[in-house]
Amino acid sequence: MTLPIEKTLIIIKPDAVKRGLVGVIFETFENIGLKLMAAKMVKPDAEVIKNHYPGTPEWIAEMGEKTISSFKQSNMDVKTIMGIDNPAKLGQFVYDRLIKYWQEGPIIVMVWQGPHVIEIARKIRGHTIPYLAQTGSIHASYSFDSSVLSVSLNRVVKTFIHASGSIDEANREIKYWFGTLDFKGYERDVDKLYLK
Question: For 49-65, what is the mean pLDDT?
């Protein structure tokens, strides 16, 4: 039987770096038992950030749908606050501001490995709107940001950790940021306890 070992891409965004949360984030992922395979700090330009995302019309509309959903979860009407409720236009608003947000400072791009790592990493991170994140997640523990707050300040929600959402997305993102890097394996005590 093959073990469900996966790799995922995690990015610590500029606000988390500025707040000194890098150690907390690393420690949280390591304490779960996940394995760091690669990491680098970079300050990417707009084109690099833009190409991290699929950027397709479908993806942009999905971002808009997520924005509408987060407003509903906050008991707010997106059209009343933003003046629009068209998913494609809302998605483009978010996309443009995401690129600006990622340029506020350096980011740390990482590859983590472990059983079910994609799902686990997203649970650890929490909901992409920190205000809606489950208690105990990193977003809930270190942020209060929300769609309503961000719109009132004309910026994107500061979701200070990116985590790949699927195996296909992780594979695409890892290749984008690390190319054909050969990830060298290594063993830790947690591997002996749970994976043998």
Answer: 92
